[in-house]
Design goal:
Largest sheet: 5 strands, antiparallel
CATH class of the domain at 188-335: Alpha Beta
CATH architecture of the domain at 188-335: 2-Layer Sandwich
Strand order of the largest sheet: 1-2-5-4-13
Structural class: alpha+beta
Radius of gyration: 23 Å
Helix content: 25-40%
Strand content: 15-25%
Length: 562
């Protein structure tokens, strides 16, 4: 499939008087600094400058447009300088907030790793990143404290095991999410491993899609639990069987969170596995050509889909990009389980077991990643997976070795059977390293679940507690049972301190909804444990048999939730 060239296409007759920066309508003149930066030099071109120039000159020699723009195309963001409080985030300029170190993101498409690859990831953290690493909720591994001088060697090591940082950030196709147990579990609808690999190989790093209006998040999965959370991705291929019993995918487009959360919409077509890469490229091209580039805060595809509706999106996709109609398709079955993290012991279709375990809100050390690689070799066959819930899974464990592995992991505080609070808590990078953050998150989230374990030791209902350092929702606060959005709040003494706006009862799946929020209702960081305990005790007292926390919140009186 080839995507249409739009460089010289004249504006359509129905084009608005003031364009939104859509290339397909003739509005190609850069309309904001980000678009000018991309026009001046493709983001992919920064790789060679890093190798030839910046790795030798050091941080001080990096061109500002590369430093705060194109470096993202290679998975690099400048890191927040230590000691700058959250109240300064919106006051200081980027160059005042940043340190001379980088956050680096290694993309792990489909979450698939070998033990050799995990050892390399761990070694990079230990040797170059002060032994700090984060397993993200996009199945990546993220580093901090990276020096530009070390980047070429880090790339060499990653590429030696089939990994890279290519397009891990930037206005490009980001990591492609897949079920960590794809091809492993007997009840999956379809194994998306091959379609992810084919799409990544053909298009990641291609100039065809290296200049999109904004980030482009993809998931492809046949998981019966919908573990990649397709409801909130830009484009998702969701496993389904058509009326003839053929396995394929239902196409969803236009999901996303941040400050204007929207759920993806079904386009209503059935996509065969051999069509996925072409249909993905066509969807991406629609976004590239029709996406709103004038205002960056409206440059995600969710705004285009909201304006067009799924019917028009389908028509443009088929008529202008695919050149053929796709058949109508059925909706997928609802998620089989509410928890989508694959934590615990799951039976593989070959009779062995997948053992999933919880980290500490995704935070881990390179040394421990290396230990996990060794455990995967000792108890399995060296296959490890990352999940979209900041968890890890070791595959291929025989029945007689499961409990020994559970104990070996527990010795490192890696929990296969965690408490509801440990299992359900996620946190973004937060103030420690992120220039956008307002509050610290990682340690606070760990302290929070530990405190709730003490106060409510018998609480056994699944509950998601997502802690975010700012409104951008990297840890998905709007879809959590209890979502905390970082902000500065006034305490009882009238002082401005770190705190959170509360969102309650968010959930995905059937009747998906974003969490309820209450005007002016915020809690200080010091109050979060008290608040959670109060609300959860109320749930335990008032719930009906089998009722989820999210359903309880939907019917709760406001006074019960404050």
């Amino acid at each position: 499939m080839t995507t249409p060239r739009t460089t010289n296409r004249p504006p359509r007759r129905d084009a608005p008087q003031r364009g939104q920066g859509q290339w397909a309508l003739g509005y190609r003149e850069p309309l904001n600094p980000n678009e000018r930066m991309k026009k001046d030099s493709d983001g992919l071109e920064v790789r060679q400058r890093i190798l030839d120039i910046y790795a030798h000159t050091g941080f001080g020699g990096i061109d500002p447009s590369d430093l705060r723009g194109r470096m993202r195309w290679m998975g690099l963001y400048t890191q927040r300088a230590q000691g700058i409080p959250g109240g300064k985030t919106a006051v200081l300029e980027p160059e005042e907030l940043e340190d001379s170190y980088f956050m680096m993101r290694a993309r792990i498409d489909g979450g698939q790793l070998t033990s050799d690859a995990l050892r390399v990831l761990g070694g990079i953290s230990t040797e170059f990143g002060r032994d700090v690493a984060d397993v993200t909720d996009r199945q990546n591994v993220q580093y901090h404290w990276i020096r530009i001088e070390d980047v070429p060697e880090i790339w060499r090591r990653l590429e030696s095991v089939g990994l890279s940082t290519m397009e891990a950030c930037g206005d490009v196709p980001r990591v492609m999410l897949g079920c960590p147990l794809a091809g492993i579990l007997e009840d999956e609808v379809v194994d998306a491993t091959d379609v992810i690999a084919a799409t990544v190989e053909k298009y990641v790093g291609s100039p065809e899609f290296s200049n999109l209006p904004r980030k482009w998040k993809t998931s492809m999965s046949g998981c019966v639990d919908h573990c990649t959370e397709p409801e909130i991705d830009d484009v998702s291929f969701v496993g389904v069987r058509n009326e003839a019993g053929e396995a394929g995918y239902d196409l969803w487009v236009g999901g996303g969170l941040s400050t204007n959360p929207m759920f993806a919409q079904r386009i209503g077509v059935f996509v065969r596995p051999d069509q996925v890469t072409d249909v993905w490229a066509a969807c991406t091209a629609v976004f590239r050509d029709y996406g709103y580039r004038r205002q960056r805060n409206r440059a995600r595809i969710k705004f285009l889909v909201a304006d067009w509706g799924p019917e028009k999106f389908r028509q443009v996709l088929q008529d202008e990009y695919l050149g053929e109609a796709l058949p109508d398709g059925p909706a997928p079955a609802p998620a089989k389980h509410d928890q989508r993290d694959h934590v615990g012991v799951s039976r593989q279709k070959d009779g062995r077991n997948a053992v999933g375990f919880a980290l500490r809100t995704g935070r881990i050390s390179g040394s421990l990643l290396t230990t996990i690689a060794d455990l995967a070799d000792e108890y399995g066959e060296g296959r490890i997976r990352t999940t979209t819930q900041q968890k890890l899974v070791i595959l291929d464990v025989p029945d007689e070795r499961v409990e020994a592995l559970v104990e070996a992991l527990a010795a490192h505080d890696l929990q296969v059977r965690p408490s509801a609070f440990r299992r359900g808590t996620m946190a973004c990078t937060g103030l420690e390293f992120c220039k956008l953050a307002i509050v610290e998150t990682k340690q606070h989230a760990q302290d929070l679940y530990a405190e709730l374990e003490k106060r409510l030791p018998d609480f056994d209902t699944p509950v998601g507690i997502n802690v975010n350092g700012c409104p951008n929702s990297c840890a998905r606060f709007q879809t959590a049972d209890i979502g905390f959005k970082g902000s500065m709040v006034r305490d009882d003494n009238g002082e401005m301190v770190e705190g959170f706006q509360v969102h309650l009862g968010g959930h995905l799946g059937v009747e998906a909804t974003f969490g309820r929020k209450f005007r002016g209702h915020k809690v200080t960081k010091a109050e979060t444990a008290d608040y959670c305990e109060r609300v959860l005790r109320g749930f335990l007292e008032r719930r009906t048999p089998g009722e989820s926390f999210a359903h309880y919140v939907s019917r709760a009186e406001e006074a019960w939730l404050l």
